[in-house]
Amino acid sequence: MNKDNENNSVSPVKTRARKRIKIKVEYDPDPPRCGNCKYKLKEQLAIPGKRPYRPMYCKSGGFATKPIAICNNWSSHDGTTLEN
């Protein structure tokens, strides 16, 4: 490693400290979003590895969506909603 990389590198946070930080900031690894909604229809691919010919679609709202989007009608597969 050269001197420039040593001076500019960020020291890694220890595992225990990382866990404490996640608890402190109430980190949610799986927040509500269209990607984990029960109304999601996955994109369909014409040819594997190519662009989808039908994007992700919402069965409830009847519109195309993206995995990181969210709406007020979100519901998980176990029935949890945004109000619960």
Chain-wise SSE layout:
Blueprint: H1 3-8, H2 15-24, E1 40-41, E2 44-45, E3 52-54, E4 57-58, E5 63-64
Antiparallel strand pairs: 1-4, 2-3, 4-5
Description of the molecule:
- There is one protein chain.
- This protein has one domain.
- It is built from 2 helices and 5 strands, in the order ααβββββ.
- The chain has helices at residues 3-8, 15-24, and strands spanning 40-41, 44-45, 52-54, 57-58, 63-64.
- A hairpin with a 6-residue loop joins strand 2 (44-45) and strand 3.
Terminal residue distance: 51 Å
Give the number of helices. Answer: 2
User: What general form does the structure show?
Assistant: flat
State the total count of DSSP E strands: 5
Structural class: alpha+beta
In percent, how much strand structure appears in the residues? 5-15%
Which residues form runs of ≥5 with pLDDT under 50?
1-5
Helix and strand element order: HHEEEEE
Give the strand order, joined by hyphens, for the main sheet: 1-4-5
Rounded mean pLDDT score: 84
Looking at this protein, list some descriptive labels.
84 residues; alpha+beta; 2 helices; 5 strands
A few lines on this structure:
The protein has helices at 3-8, 15-24, and strands at 40-41, 44-45, 52-54, 57-58, 63-64.
